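Section 5.1 Outputs to date
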Amino acid sequence: MDAIVIAGGIPLPQDPLYLYTNGNFKALVDVAGKPMIQWVLDALGDAKHVDKVIIIGLSPKSGVICKKPLFYVANQGRMLANIIAGVEKTLELNTKAEYLLIVSSDIPCLKPELVDWLVETCMQTKDDLYYGVVPREVMETRWPGSRRTYVKLKDIQVCGADIGIAHVAMATKNLDIWEELLGDRKSPLKQAAIIGFGTLVLLLLGRLSLTYAVERVTKRIGIRGRAIVWPHAEPGMDIDKPHQLKLVREDMAKQQEKTDREKAKTK
């Protein structure tokens, strides 16, 4: 399965991360000695179920590398357009491609075993879209101060994971609805309103379960979809704010110190 990595975002002056990018790509912000996208590429490169990687938004001049064949597509300006361009590139490289991974460049804590877990879990069925969610208790146990945005459902509170799987046909279905949903991806209430007034009311009253939410969304869009509940927090730890960048930098520095100590013991 190929993976597309969305990396075209450049924070504007009013964005909290602007001071860390100086007008450059968010994907290239340093995290523990590497651009944050490089950590994502390392995970994809070591994942056994990933064949090729397509970066949307950067160019070869960025200097990032990957163990898997790496391709570049120019930034199309909007999230949906970038995903469609990635799908088109995937089909250009492999006309028989069916599914692809869609990965954000700002989840540097992603690991290869997590990528493989997702592929193996999703490919047990043949749905159109697999959207990952991370339970609040999983996220806050791993990163107590992450301050994610959670959707409060009847049976669970979740935040979104920034890696998922979609059938290539998704790039040609209900594009107007996708444009709205992706544009409001940081606002669960706005997304619920797009799906329908009834869904919004159920969400506000706390009567919308995860299973029913998936049914309402997929019916509205006209697809077969499945929610993947992650037992790991890393795919949901996307870096949007300075405090999240600080948390991840400190966490990865501690992990590197631990690795260095273990290596020193074996010498």
